[in-house]
Amino acid sequence: MSEIKTPLPRDVTERVRRLGANVRVARQRRRMSQEDLASKAGVNDKTLRRLEKGDEGVSLGNALSVLWTLGLLQTTSGIADPDTDEHGKTLELARLPKRTRAPAPSDDF
Asked: What is the spatial distance between Cα 24 and Cα 34, in angstroms, rounded to a whole number?
């Protein structure tokens, strides 16, 4: 039985295509062939071609391996960084229990 694939959001497909184009430019600047980069990254040629074309089906591990081989792995350090996730921090704070203070003792005798 075939699996029904839900289309990805447009922003996601555009970002994947941009990543692929960026990988291609980085490879060309280093004067590497697709075959050479694929071999050094431990992926097959077809996978690298799919990545450069912006195929959403390329695994994250393969994409990161290619970036590592190009010396660009550090550029991914901000992805899903909990320190910069302002929306997540706001949601987390909203779920914290509200603290109430006991009334201060009065000096009435």
From this structure: 9
Cα separation, 36 vs 44, in Å, equals 10
pLDDT tens digits, 12-57: 999 999 999 999 999 999 999 999 999 999 999 999 999 999 999 9
Both structure tokens of 66: 């290619």
Distance between CA atoms of residues 82 and 94, nearest Å: 16
Please tell me the distance from the alpha carbon of residue 99 to that of residue 62, in angstroms, as a whole number: 47
Structure tokens given for 1: 């039985």
Instruction: Pick the closest to residue 43 from 16, 25, 68 (CA basis).
Output: 68
pLDDT tens for residues 73-102? 999 999 999 999 999 999 998 998 887 777
CA-CA distance, 38 to 88, in Å (whole number)? 36
Q: What single-letter DSSP state applies at residue 58?
A: S
DSSP state, 32?
-
Joined together, the tokens standing for residue 109 give 């005798």
